[in-house]
Amino acid sequence: MTSKKETHIMKITQPDRFTLTKLPDSKVVQRVLEGEKELFEILLRRYNQRLFRVIRSYIHSEDDVQDIMQDSYVKAYTKLQQFNNQSSFSTWLIRIAINEALQHIRKNKRLLSNYGKIERLENIFQLPDTNQVNPESQTIKNETRVLVERAVDQLPQKYKIIFMLQQVEGFTNPEIGACLGLTESNVKVRLHRAKNLLKEELFKTTQDASIFQFGNNKCDLIVEKVMKRI
User: Fold this and answer.
1) In angstroms, what is the C-alpha Rg of the chain?
2) What is the pLDDT of residue 68?
C-alpha cells in the first residue's frame, strides 16, 4: 500500500517534474490553493536552506530550528490565501519564520541565557551530500567553516540576521528591509557594523555560501514532516 509520503513523491516525480519545479512561486502558490497540495513540496525544497539559515540566526539549537521551520511552513500553508504577491513569497515566508523564532525565544527564556554559545560543529550544519571531495579539501573546508561560523555567531543577533541575508543568501538591502521592517539606511548601518565586528580576513572567507548548510537528508526530513502536517 502506498504511504502518504510516497504518494507525494510519486506525484512530484512524474515526467513533468522538471516543468513543475521551474514554476515561479506565484504559480505554485496558485496551484496549491486550487487543490494541488502536493506541490507545496516544491516550495519546501526551494526554501529549506534559506529558512534554516534565517532561523539559525536567532536560534542555536538545531532541534529547535527544525521545529520552527516546520511551524513556519505549516503557518504559511494555512495562511496561503493571505499571500497577495505584493512582496515575494520568499520575503513573506521569511517574515513568518522570524516571527516564529522570536515567539520561541519569548516563550523559552532559557535560550536567552544560552545565546552566543557555540554548539558542536555537526549540530550546526551538515556538509553537502557528496563523495567527490578529497579528504584534504574536506578538512580545509571544515576548518574554514568552523572559523567562519564562530565569527558569525559572535555577532549580536540584529547584525547577524542582516549579515546572513546579504552575504550568505544574497538579498539586496531593500529586500532585507522588507523582511525585517527596517529602512534601507538602517540596513546599511547594521551591515557596516557587522563587517567591522568581523576580522577582515575572516569576512572574506564568508563568500562561500556553504556555511550553515542544510543537507539533503535534513531537507527530505523537513519535507516529510511538513507534508504530513498539512
Assistant:
1) 18
2) 96
pTM of the complete model = 0.70
- Secondary-structure class of domain 1-126+215-230 per CATH: mainly alpha
- Give me the CATH code for the 129-212 domain, please: 1.10.10.10
Reading the block at residue 41, the C-alpha cell is 513540496
Measured CA to CA, the distance from residue 178 to residue 91 in angstroms comes to: 7
Q: How many other C-beta atoms lie within 10 A of the C-beta of residue 38? A: 18
Query: Which cell goes with 55?
Result: 532561523
3-state secondary structure of 205: helix
Instruction: State in Å, rounded, how far the first CA of the chain is from the last one.
Output: 21
DSSP 8-state code for residue 38:
G
Each as own residue / partner, the long-range contacts of residues 74-82 (CB below 8 Å, 24 or more positions apart, any chain) are 74/226, 74/229, 74/230, 75/100, 77/32, 77/40, 77/226, 77/230, 78/230, 80/29, 80/32, 80/33, 81/33
Cell of 230: 498539512
Could you read off the pLDDT of 170-229 as tens digits, one per residue? 999 999 999 999 999 999 999 999 988 876 546 555 455 566 777 778 888 899 999 999
